[in-house]
Each structure stands twice: as C-alpha cells, then as structure tokens.
Amino acid sequence: MKRVTLGELSVEQLVERFVAIGLAQEQADLYDDIGEFNRLFKKMQEVVGELRNRAGDQRSALLTLYDHPNLQVRIKAVKNTLALAPEEGRRVLRAIADSQRQPQAGEAGMSLRNLDAGIFKPT
Amino acid sequence: MFVPDAGRAASRELRRVGWLLHAHVVETKLYALREAVKTNFDPNQPRVPAGHGRESGRWTDAGGGTGGRLPSGSGTLLDSGGSQSERIRLAQNDSPDRESDVPRLPGARRRKIQSISDIPKEKPASRRLQNTVAKFVAHEVASVILARAELRGLIGAELRAAVSRVMIAMEVASWVSDLLPPLVSYSDPPRSLKELRDAVSHPRSGYEIHHIVEKDAAAKDGFPRSMVESRENLVRVPTFKHHEITGWFMTGNEDFGDLSPRNYLRGKDWQTRMRVGLDALIEYGVLKP
C-alpha cells in the first residue's frame, strides 16, 4: 500500500483523514480493541500535529467538525482544538456529557473535570 | 396423494400455530409502534445519512448536531470555504486505508457494526463479534430509553421488559436476545456507592466486579493487596460499562498530555487514584453524583 507523508496532504485531506480515524476509533472501541484504539490515537495526534505546524495553525479546520454527526469525531475535534475555541469547545463537551451517550459522554465529562482541575491544559 | 386424517389435522394445527406466532410478532411490533407514536415519534424526522459511523440512520434534528454548535457561514470560525456537500463528502469517508498505510480499519478484517442492519441474521461463531453486536445494541437501546421519560429509571423486570420491547421495535436479530443480561444492565440507572459496594456480595449475570482503583496498576506501584481488594475498592457494575471505563483508563488521552489515565496515575497516591476512579464511575453513568 502506498505510504503517505502527511506533509504532502492538503488541509482538506488531513481533515478527511481525521474523520476517518475517528470513525475507526469508534469501531475499535466497540470491539474492545485497546491496541488498535491506541494505534489510531497516535495516528490522530500525528494529523493534529501536522495541522498545528502549518502556517497559521490549521487546526482551525477541525472546528468544522464541532457539529459532526458522529460523537467520536466530534469529541476528538473539540479536545484537539480547545486552545483555539475554549468557550465553544467547553459548550460542546458539556452537550456530549449531558447526552449520556457512552462512551463519549464519559470521556467528555472527565475532560471537563480535568479542565477545571487544571490537569488538562490545552495547547 | 393419500393423506391420513390424523396427518391432515396435524398439518392444520402446525399451520395454525405458525399463524398465531406470526400474529404475535406483528401485534408486538404494532404495540411498539403505537408506543413510539404516543411519544411524539415522527417518521419524517431527518436521519443522519450513511457513512457517519454509529450515528448513521439515527434520528437527528434538522442540523444533525446536538447543540454547542458554532456559528457558521462566511467570516465565522466554521467558514471552511467548502460547501455543505463538500463537508458531507469529507465526513462520509470512512476508509482511510484508501490512500495510506495508516488506520488499518477494523472493517478491513472485521465486520463493521454501524447500524442494526449490519448485525448478522444468524448467530456468529466468533464470541468477540457476538459481544460487539451486544454492545452496539446496548448503546442503541440505551439511547431510546434515555429519550423516553417513561422508560428512564426503570429497574429489574420492568427494565428487562422495556429493553426487550425496544429490541423488537428495532427488529434486532433474534439471537441477540441470548445476550440479554448485559444489554439490560447497560441501561441501569446510576446507584449510590453503598448500593454498588453492597452488590459485590451478590454476583449476577450482566454485571462484573470493578476495582475503583485499578487493580494491576496499584499492585505494580506497591499498594498492598489488603487495600486493592478491600470492600472500599470493589463495586459491582454493568458489564459493558466496566469495559468502557477500563477502556478509558487504558487508552491515550489528550487530557493527560496524550498519556493514558493509567500511565498518568503511575506514582500517584491512593486518594488521587480513588478520586479519579469515582469520577469515572459518575461520568459513565454508574454512580450517582
């Protein structure tokens, strides 16, 4: 299979890749496949890192995913852009937590606690 | 062809039993539909289009989100310069293997379970797939129960009956009913800490014993067995909630500088671990706040 260098992808392709990884994470979670989920987590952080390093911090492209229909994609978009849109990000995290739809609601609730406690410091 | 009277009678009786069985199924579905209509069910309500993972096919509001929406349009944070159809195209791509070596999607080697129609009609031999299907159905059923005030907070036989009714209305493959205990327990309302601790002495199908402070990690950090296995540290929780909380502890997390909560807690004191463990039980809907 062709190996892709993230640096060669457009911002749009990186967002597309972010969504794809989020959807795959949801399946890994359903299968209780911790190893696969962690592998996908690293891949997602590589995409986020690539966006962050582009001129003007192109993570802003992930803000378009704040209302993505898939909860896993939505929560990951928020958690990786909280430094850019802290108020809106918190509002979306609260909405996900209040939805009680697990496992994303649990993760969102814990992230809000960690933000309040100063453990989670978005950069 | 010669058919003895007794044979004809038996054949008639079999047809009658079959008809009654089908009539019962139809009646049950009509009942579920009537209940849905009574709770403002709107068949014309828009659904999330295919390609959005587990959300696909679910009822949604007109915008497809659940609040917390950023202002969109020209000049706003959401102005990506792309059309709505472009955004949908982006969102619908769930095949990252298409262009790289990166996410080895489970779909490439496993059956993707994103909607009720993805559930195999026959019980699969793979125990893992059975559990995955049960977990998926538990999520779907729980979302229906949460949305309907009269079903929220049910326990015991009433909850079991409600879960069965919802599964029939969803037309879930009948073999999934074999896995009913964890499906039912997943929709349990949150309990007090005393209730969760007391329940440890009463093992039951659909539930597992959970260590609030993670067992192996605490043992590795030198906490004595008397603490790790103490009554204070043990609770009985719904099986799939147990898996979800354990999954949260074991996977990378942006909150902790990309460390898993388990790794973040390495070297931390007992109280810190206990607080995180209790918070997780609350946020995953097991423990009353």
Task: Offer a few descriptive terms.
heterodimer; A: 123 residues; mainly alpha; 5 helices; 0% strand; globular; B: 289 residues; two-stranded antiparallel sheet; 2 strands; 3% strand
What's the short version?
With 123 residues, chain A is mainly alpha-helical. In chain A, 62% of the residues lie in helices and 0% in strands.
Notes on the structure:
The complex is a heterodimer of chains A (123) and B (289). Chain A starts with 10 loop residues before the first helix and ends in a 7-residue tail after the last helix. The radius of gyration of chain A is 14 Å and the shape is globular. By secondary structure, chain A is mainly alpha-helical. Chain A has helices at residues 11-30, 34-53, 71-79, 86-99, 104-116. Chain A is built from five helices and no strands. Chain A is 62% helix and 0% strand. Chain B contains twelve helices and two strands. Chain B has a two-stranded antiparallel sheet. Chain B is mainly alpha-helical and 289 residues long. Chain B is elongated, with a radius of gyration of 24 Å. Helices cover 47% and strands 3% of the residues of chain B. In chain B, helix 1 (5-38) packs across helix 5 (156-170). The longest helix of chain B has 34 residues, at 5-38. The interface between A and B is large, with 75 and 72 residues.
Give the topology.
The complex is a heterodimer of chains A (123) and B (289).
Chain A: H1 11-30, H2 34-53, H3 71-79, H4 86-99, H5 104-116
Helix pairs in contact in A: 1-2, 1-3, 3-4, 3-5, 4-5
Chain B: H1 5-38, H2 84-92, H3 106-109, H4 127-147, H5 156-170, H6 180-185, H7 193-198, E1 207-211, H8 215-220, H9 225-228, E2 234-238, H10 239-250, H11 261-264, H12 270-283
Antiparallel strand pairs in B: 1-2
Helix pairs in contact in B: 1-5, 4-5
